[in-house]
Amino acid sequence: MLILKIKVMNRRLKKGQYGWITQEILDFVYLSGEVSYKEMDTHYLVVCQGKPAYQRSSSFNHHLESLVKPSRRRRCRRYLIKGSNRKYTVGFSFTASDLYKK
Description:
This protein is mostly helical. It has one domain (2-11, 18-100): Nucleotidyltransferase, domain 5 (2-Layer Sandwich), CATH 3.30.420. It is built from 5 helices and 2 strands; from the N terminus they run ααααββα. It has helices spanning 2-9, 20-32, 37-49, 60-67, 96-100, and strands at residues 78-82, 88-92. β1 and β2 form a beta hairpin. α2 packs across α3 (37-49). The longest helix has 13 residues, at 20-32. The protein is globular, with a radius of gyration of 14 Å. The protein starts with a helix and ends with a helix.
């Protein structure tokens, strides 16, 4: 049951599915380590929106508002933490008991 729960929490979503943008941004930050707002915004424009990187108008700031809040409703239980160097990293908001719930 534990392995099944972890697989459901980490399941890859397809582009266009509900939650895909959140998962894509959190994966990008997790794999990159620490990233700035500009790096996340550029990734959002290019990968999620399919626009050129030099375009500066996007709605990423609306996504960022929810990404910095730990949410129990978010399946992956990850969120962004802003460090003292003004760069973001990924934090985890689940406990071990969350994995054993049915």
